Amino acid sequence: MSSAAPHVTGQDHVGPDHLWSVDEHLEDILATVRPLEPIELHLLDAQGCVLVEDITVPVSLPPFDNSSMDGYAVRVADIAGASEEFPAALEVVGDVAAGQSELLHVGPGQAARIMTGAPLPPGAETVVPVEWTDGGLGEGPVAGMRARSLGPEGATGHVHVYRPAEARAHVRAKGSDVKAGDRALEAGTILGPPQISLLAAIGRGAVRVRPRPRVVVLSTGSELVQPDTELGPGQIYDSNSFALTAAARDAGAIAYRVGAVADDAETLRSTIEDQLVRADLMVTTGGVSVGAYDVVKEALSHVGDEDEAGSGIDFRKLAMQPGKPQGFGSIGPDHTPLLALPGNPVSSYVSFELFVRPAIRALMGLPDVHRPTTHATLAADKALTSPKGRRQFLRGTYADGKVTPVGGAGSHLVAALAHADALITVPEDTVSVEPGTEVEVVLLG
Description:
The protein is an alpha/beta fold. The protein has eight helices and 29 strands.
């Protein structure tokens, strides 16, 4: 369940006609959402989660000196001056394989055939690759070793070495990766495949992490139908729930998509209540404006009247484009945070990036919840216009310090959104941005 604190919505301290800034709305969200409680998970279950503890190395990596090549473990003096014309002839005393517990001793004039990863045997000082030898065949340099099952005699007899090697050549030293007592990973690290590998390599089978947030996404609208079905009159395919579910997963969440809910307040309320059992965060899209069929607003505006004290959804207007209508609050006995986003596809996606993604990252306990931003030179054919008093977010493509707008300002332009990898931010007090001007860019990829 969510560990979010009871929400005191903005309606408690501002009037219903207050025009919220983007920063005020985000601040209200982040002041409410609390990191999920830590749990201990096995390594593969912890993938994508955030560590809540520093990990100290209990055993050095590698834990012993070992060979980085297939070849022969020898003494340096025995191969000094070796060449193809005058090779060093050494007695092969046996094999050293990876995982072998009893090691041979390499004395003067001797060599042990050694495999990659096998421990350097006592007495040996260096490793010569098999390609520098005749492999015990007496027929000049070889390209590799024959499998032991096919040529067991290779572990005995003599080998000719054609090149000298310095001490500890082709030897991976004990602790050359990390040493016992070193800090392997810091608290706050997101566990990806390399981190999982390191934890396994140092013997950790489980770690204490904040779990990935469970996000339930549902879209509203009687006009919405599933992809792969035939469109009827006045119908469109439901793209928002797919886009936001994918975006939630990209942000690090375990996301569940609920099929589109028709424009009926009671159906929506019961659907949300049914989904609360698997939600640390609820996200709806559509139905938050001022129309007669804006069902989310109708269903949830007075939810706090029936839920426990502290719950409630506040529907507000933001000084931004796209995405002016927004809703935020908490619902249910665990005060699960709920973000209600507008229904136009671009408005919905931009709102997700600005508000939902930071909320997901906050639930994960990450110190930095924001997308990276940079400054870029606007590459456009004409000036960009923006409504005064609104912070506008335009889609764009970013490369080599330049950003190029993609599509227009319309909040329905899904195709343009699919080609964008950045959001161009136009401040509230700016109504026109000329080509060549430096602009702030939010990087989406």
